Amino acid sequence: ADSRARGLVRGFGVTSYLEATAPPGKEMGGLRFEADGRIAFLTGTKDYGQGHEGAYAQILGPALGVSYDRIGLLQGDSDALLHGGGTGGSRSLMASGKAAVEAADAVIEKGRAAAAHYLEAAEADIEFGGGLFRVAGTDRAIALHDLAARMKADPPPGDGLDSLDVALVVETPPSAFPNGCHICEVELDPETGAVAVDRYVAIGDFGTIVNPMLVEAQMHGGVTQGLGQALMEEVALDGDGQCLNGSLMDYCIPRAADLPDLPHMIVGDRPVPTETNPLGVKGCGEAGTTGALPAVANAVADALHRCGVDGFDMPATPHRIWRLLNGKAE
Question: Which domain range does residue 209 map to?
Answer without folding.
Answer: 2-21+176-325
